[in-house]
Amino acid sequence: MKLIDEIKNLKNSKLRKTVDKRLKEFESFKDKNTKEWFSELCFCILTANSKAVTGLKIQDELKSKGFCEYSHDKIKDTIRKNKHRFHNNKAKYIICAREHIDIKDKIISLTNKEGEKKARQWLADNIKGLGFKEASHFMRNVGYKKIAIIDRHILRVMKENKLIKEIPKSITRKKYIEIEDIFNALAKKLNMNSAELDLYMWFMKTGKVLK
Question: Whole-angstrom Cα distance, residue 123 to residue 10?
Fold first, then answer.
């Protein structure tokens, strides 16, 4: 398959060093405190229906202290200043998410007992503003490797390489899991985990290796 050859070539290029460094950053979250995990959760809330770069700018400005402590209005103003859409709703979601400021303990406990996919489902069910994609994004960013972030860039690569027939207009959880199974099968063929493959495929469409 052409896609397999392309990804292998990328892995054998200078890009591998950048990807490996990013994966180590994700893995390092096991040593970070729950406020840093909460900051990452808020970043993933911000990336829903928006660009990751915009979410990064807001996260860099607010930091974990801002996400954990600032007022709704201060968070809203920071989001709006960075030209992010839905600044009012995003600020509300972040304030509501503070109910789960102990997110690190909750996710570690869930994954240890029931696995990564159950933890993702819990996130999508309990954190306003998170769907399966954003919940998967959070899980990957704090070091979990077995679930896929099915975003528009990944879908385009999959469609172009005939792994899926079409890009769905909306993705139900059932459809998400169907596409994820195809993605994970590809990762297995490449002897990669889902987190690693995601970074290479995302780079193919964006030219960047972001979180």
Answer: 33
Which of 151, 159, 174, 181 is the catalytic position? 151
- Per the annotation, the verdict on 60 as an active-site residue is no
pTM higher than 0.90? yes
Arch. (CATH architecture) of 2-27+148-206 = Orthogonal Bundle (1.10)
In a 3-state reduction of DSSP, which class is residue 207?
A: coil
Per-block average pLDDT, block size 10, for the chain (211 residues)? 94 96 96 97 92 92 96 96 91 98 97 96 97 96 95 95 94 96 97 96 92 80
Q: 106: which 2 tokens? A: 């909750």
- Contacts of 162 by beta carbon, 8 Å cutoff, 6+ apart: none
Active site residue 151: yes
Written as six digits, the tokens of 100 are 């789960």
Give me the catalytic one of 35, 90, 104, 133.
133
The residue length of the chain stands at 211
Q: Where are the domains of the chain?
A: 2-27+148-206, 32-141
